[in-house]
Design goal:
By secondary structure, the chain is α/β, with parallel strands linked by helices. The chain has helices spanning about 15-20, 25-35, 40-50, 55-75, 80-90, 90-140, 145, 150-160, 165-190, 195-225, 225-240, 240-250, 255-305, 310-355, 415-425, 445-450, 465-470, 480-490, 495-500, 520-535, 550-565, 575-580, 600-605, 610-620, and strands spanning about 375-385, 390-400, 405-410, 430-435, 440, 455, 540-545, 570-575, 585-590, 595-600. The protein is about 65% helix and about 10% strand. The structure holds adenosine-5'-triphosphate (ATP). Adenosine-5'-triphosphate binds near residues 147, 385 and 392.
């Protein structure tokens, strides 16, 4: 597989073997389409097989008609009466042939429509299948995949392919159909003038070579421009979102965004235009070469007819066959290079599916201890974000005893959220380990870990779903449990917010949809906290849970939290010391290391960093 890279590649950088290797994805594509609908896939193949034989049949019946007409003109005297002639039976053959040709034309039309119907239905189903597969696969990947621009580029490329790639298979089926047609036409032509086929073949080469080169250039361009295209999407997104509208207006960012969009779009446009112009010019030259070949061959057949070697019917059949063959040969050859070209894009899609999550479950996973008997321990843990050469945390050891509430404090970037990500196994540590009652998190079943640790992140998601769903998704298995949702909402004070909605729990939140209703930051936070309460988790992690709450709500949320957390283990992160002081123990972090640790009173008495920070905040209130 190619190394994932978003950097531009040029046609010359891709070896022939690599181009061929991309064709392996055709098998995966076929399986995916087959899985989508066996019936429709079989129907598409079957109908095309029948349609493949139509051209030669048409030409041959045409030849028979002409020969029959020529024969009849020889025996029928000018001005003969149609009725007498019909009754004599002389017209029987030509009538049958005409009827046959009519049937072939009608049949062909029906087949074309049936194929296009089957392909369009299959195409839509397949594009749904790919989108579902993409969603499923993305959900299995690690957080690191989503936090890395390179993987976002890959996801973007895969997403772009999801909707359109089934056309490749239609194209391959079409190719197979054309090949069968060519074989039947060529067999006819071969009987009359074998070397004409060779001539046709040679005349194709420049076009095929040119086409595959342009395909590769097109792909390289597209791929190399993925980061810019993502930026383009981003600028478009910023310019048209309710979340951004306030700042865009007040900072007067409109022109700035327009300029940035123009610059990015302009660069992409210039590249695309150059490619389109080159392709058009060379396409014209190559087409002229093959037209020349056709007329050369045509002149030859005309001469052989004049000299009496071929009948007029033969002439019609041969020139028709040659014309069709010429077109079809072109189509097939170009089709092959196009399929090869398209399969480059398939690599984007299927190599995304080949990405494997690195945080995987142990072979024989152990359950999370219920209840926790001893403690959660960070044992000499070190962690560096991928693509970062700085340790976010290093040599970190601490424990949270069963039933204890521990608070983490520290300046921005001290490593607090990183600790939460390690505790929830969104990442694995690079050094040391995180254990619960001595069992490494890596040995634990992902499901039981998720069931036992409830987290509310500072950048929690504001889903444009109903209020009930926004809370219910905190425990997807109990999403329909209204009683549980109400209890969770009561605990987090979200119930008061929801009681003000005309639709209550059925109220759609957010500004995305017509009936949606937006909330204040603090109101959203109450909903998010309720989501955390949906799970009856033993360990609750609250990362900046109350930053947007007013003082009264904060006091109340925490009053309830500490009450409810009795017997539960909790980890709190907050910059507000009024929140932090309720914890049994406070850990002060700096640069990913612990610098102080103890209950609030002890830390204040010790007069260290915590005491200073506490004093600064307290002074602000005096
Ligand atoms: N996805 C990431 N990739 C690379 N570095 C990161 C990533 N997330 C955080 N960091 C870095 O890791 C360090 C610790 O970050 P962390 O988010 O844990 O800090 P924090 O204490 O939670 O900060 P805050 O109080 O601002 O929320 C910081 O230096 C930060 O820049």
């Amino acid at each position: 597989m190619r190394q994932p890279s978003s950097g531009p590649i040029t046609p010359d950088q891709m070896s022939f073997a690599e181009r061929m290797a991309n064709l392996r994805h055709l098998g995966s594509l076929f399986r995916q389409i087959w899985r989508t609908s066996r019936f429709l896939t079989s129907a598409s193949i079957g109908l095309r097989l029948i349609k493949a034989l139509q051209p030669v049949a048409m030409l041959y019946v045409g030849k028979l008609i002409i020969d029959e007409v020529v024969r009849l003109t020889g025996i029928v005297s000018p001005g003969a009466d149609l009725e007498t002639l019909w009754q004599s039976g002389a017209l029987a053959t030509v009538a049958v042939l005409l009827a046959l040709e009519f049937a072939l034309v009608i049949g062909n039309d029906l087949l074309t429509r049936a194929i296009s119907l089957v392909d369009s239905v299959l195409g839509e189903l397949h594009s749904n299948t790919v989108s579902v597969d993409l969603l499923r696969h993305a959900a299995r990947l690690d957080l690191l995949h989503f936090e890395s621009p390179e993987y976002q580029d890959r996801l973007e490329r895969a997403r772009r392919q999801a909707a359109s790639r089934n056309s490749v298979l239609s194209q391959i089926f079409g190719q197979a159909q054309d090949i069968i047609t060519v074989a039947t036409l060529a067999a006819g032509l071969f009987v009359y003038a074998p070397w004409l086929i060779l001539l046709l073949f040679i005349s194709m080469f420049p076009a095929v070579w040119g086409e595959q080169r342009f395909n590769l250039r097109g792909y390289a361009l597209n791929r190399g421009r993925t980061p810019e295209r993502r930026q383009l999407e981003y600028v478009r997104w910023i310019g048209a979102r309710p979340e951004t509208a306030k700042e865009v207006k007040l900072f007067g960012l409109g022109d700035f965004l327009v300029e940035r969009f123009k610059t990015l779009a302009g660069a992409i446009f210039i590249d695309n235009r150059k490619l389109a112009v080159d392709r058009a010019i060379w396409g014209g030259v190559f087409a002229a070469i093959s037209t020349l070949t056709y007329y050369g061959a045509y002149a030859y057949i005309v001469w052989r007819t004049i000299s009496g070697d071929f009948t007029i019917g033969d002439l019609a059949f041969l020139s028709g066959s040659f014309l069709r063959l010429n077109g079809l040969f072109h189509q097939i050859m170009l089709g092959f290079t196009q399929v090869a070209g398209q399969s480059l894009y398939l690599d984007d899609l299927f190599s995304f599916f080949e990405l494997k999550p690195s945080i995987v479950e142990a072979d024989d996973p152990k359950p999370f201890p219920v209840p926790i008997r001893s403690a959660i321990r960070f044992e000499n843990v070190g962690f560096r974000y991928p693509e970062s050469d700085q340790w976010a945390i290093r040599n970190l050891s601490f424990e949270i005893a069963a039933g204890e509430t521990v608070a983490l404090v520290g300046e921005n970037g001290a490593g607090k959220t990183t600790i939460v990500k390690l505790l929830t196994r969104l990442y694995d540590p690079d050094e040391g380990r995180v254990t619960v009652d001595g069992i490494d998190l890596k040995q634990m079943s992902a499901r039981s870990l998720a069931e036992n640790i409830g987290v509310i992140f500072q950048d929690f998601m504001r889903f444009s779903f109903t209020a009930g769903e926004n809370i219910g998704i905190g425990n997807i298995e109990h999403m329909e449990d209204e009683e549980r949702i109400r209890q969770a909402a009561d605990r987090s004070l979200a119930a008061d917010v929801i009681s003000g909605f005309p639709d209550g729990y059925a109220q759609v939140l957010g500004r995305l949809f017509n009936e949606g209703r937006d909330l204040s930051g603090g109101e959203w936070q109450k909903i998010a906290i309720a989501r955390g309460y949906m799970r009856d988790a033993q360990v609750m992690v609250l990362d900046e849970p109350t930053s947007a709450l007013d003082a009264r709500a904060e006091a109340e949320v925490f009053g309830r939290f500490t009450g409810l957390a009795e017997g539960k283990t909790a980890l709190l992160i907050s910059h507000r010391f009024s929140t932090v002081r309720v914890a049994d123990r406070i850990i002060v972090l700096e640069g990913g290391r612990i610098i102080e640790e103890g209950p609030h009173e002890d830390l204040v008495a010790a007069g260290g960093v915590y005491a200073d920070l506490f004093e600064i905040q307290a002074a602000g209130y005096r």
